[in-house]
Design goal:
By secondary structure, the chain is mostly helical. The chain has a single domain, classed as Arc Repressor Mutant, subunit A. Helices cover 56% and strands 10% of the residues. A two-stranded antiparallel ribbon has the order 1-2. Helix 6 crosses helix 8. The chain starts with 9 loop residues before the first helix and ends with a helix. The relative contact order is 0.11. The mean pLDDT is 90.
Length: 143
């Protein structure tokens, strides 16, 4: 896996990997919306094309952000699970959610109200910890 980076900047380097239209959406879907299978992702509201989803999941796997495994009782179905490296992106997802609520809501008339935003704003650290612990507990049955 040989990635091309534009420069030495840590932010730009992170965006070279995660900054396209889909990467953080897929991670958010896994972390918050309980998406684990290819079918789960395809059926989501974001409507990602199958070829793009395949490419992004493969890239996330190569980066060590997700692992691909099979359902214990159905070896035909691939599961995509966040690794610790993937879970480490939780604070970014939370910050983007808060920023969007405060800065994009006025531009997006269909943005839903979320009770989680209030919780995030009141105690980001506790919310991040809760999301990560819930995810770890949820995927424990697949290991």
């Amino acid at each position: 896996m040989d990635y091309k980076f534009r420069c030495e900047c840590p932010i730009t380097s992170a965006l070279d990997i995660l900054g396209d239209k889909w990467m953080l959406v897929i991670i958010k879907q896994m972390l918050i919306e309980d998406k684990k299978t290819f079918k789960d992702f395809i059926e989501s509201d974001e409507a990602i094309a199958t070829n793009i989803l395949s490419s992004k999941l493969k890239c996330l796997e190569e980066l060590g952000i997700v692992i691909k495994t099979q359902l214990p009782d159905n070896k035909k179905t691939n599961l995509y699970l966040l690794t610790e490296k993937g879970l480490a992106l939780t604070p970014i997802i939370v910050e983007l959610s808060i920023w969007s609520d405060e800065n994009v809501r006025e531009l997006n008339s269909i943005m839903r109200d979320s009770p989680e935003i209030v919780i995030m704003k009141n105690d980001k650290s506790a919310f991040i910890k809760m999301i990560q612990e819930n995810y770890r507990a949820q995927i424990e049955k697949f290991h």
